[in-house]
Amino acid sequence: DLTLFDEHPLLENGPKELPMARDGKWLAVSDGNYYIMLDIEKMKVDWKRLIDENDITQTPPMRMELQGGYLAVVKRNYDAKAIYMLNSRTGEVLWRTDPKEARSPQPIYSMFMEDDKLYGLRPHPGQAYYFVGLDCKTGKELFGANEQKGYGGKPEVRLRRMAYGKALVAETKDRQDFELKAFDMGNGKLLHEVKTKSAGDFGEHGRASAAVQNGRMVLLGKNDLVVAVPK
């Protein structure tokens, strides 16, 4: 009975993905009415909680990220977009987007969590995006949102789901322009970027592909292989 609704809660025509997250023996899922935390070692439901501000007339589009004591959920509250941080052991809401308070935490996508910090990308009204970091306990921003602009259209961006030392890497596609950008997890600043031309999508056979290893970023395009090494 788990939801199979894979629409993106923030992006129009965003990448499809089922709302679920895993951390060790813990697996967070949903049936469209409840958040459900499973203990997959004991094969039992640890807790379940009704989805807050849920439109019962339609299945909510959601994304989840789970690590340690925290479960981040991004969803639509009817026609509003919101982020919730839950205690992953109890289901208690620790903080959330408040539509009446502009300074409350705003939703992000392509989430990654490490050391009680949540990182992700925030949608931009123009041809750009923001790299964002939030404190899991309080929802406060770790640094000012880092705006990345200068694209020819709305870029398709995703964070690689791994920390490389103290950096996170974003893969960006803007029409036929492909790039990798490394961001400092401490202050959010752009550390380095590499670009190339190609077609198709990242990881598609015969098209653009990328790798990050031992501090190096490698980007393969149509005619070029670009390698960036730390200074």
Model description:
There is one protein chain. The chain is mainly beta. The protein has strands at residues 21-23, 26-30, 34-39, 44-50, 62-67, 70-77, 80-87, 93-96, 109-114, 117-123, 129-135, 146-148, 156-159, 167-174, 177-184, 190-197, 209-213, 216-220, 225-228. It is built from no helices and 19 strands. The strands form five sheets. Strands 1-2-3-4 form a four-stranded antiparallel β-sheet, with no helix packed on it. Strands 5-6-7-8 form a four-stranded antiparallel β-sheet, with no helix packed on it. A hairpin with a 2-residue loop joins strand 6 and strand 7. It starts with 20 loop residues before the first strand and ends with a strand.
Outline of this structure?
This protein is an all-beta fold. It is built from no helices and 19 strands.
What's the arrangement of secondary structure elements?
Elements: E1 21-23, E2 26-30, E3 34-39, E4 44-50, E5 62-67, E6 70-77, E7 80-87, E8 93-96, E9 109-114, E10 117-123, E11 129-135, E12 146-148, E13 156-159, E14 167-174, E15 177-184, E16 190-197, E17 209-213, E18 216-220, E19 225-228
Antiparallel strand pairs: 1-2, 2-3, 3-4, 5-6, 6-7, 7-8, 9-10, 10-11, 11-12, 13-14, 14-15, 15-16, 17-18, 18-19
Characteristic key phrases:
about 230 residues; mainly beta; about 0% helix
The proportion of strand residues reads over 45%
Low-confidence parts lasting 5 or more residues at pLDDT below 50? none
Tell me the radius of gyration: 18 Å
Seen as an oligomer or otherwise, the chain set is single chain
The percent range for helix content is under 10%
Structural class, by secondary structure, is: mainly beta
Structural shape? globular
**Which series of helices and strands comes N to C?**
EEEEEEEEEEEEEEEEEEE
Terminus-to-terminus distance? 52 Å
Q: What's the count of strands?
A: 19
Number of helices: 0
Give the overall pLDDT as a whole number.
95
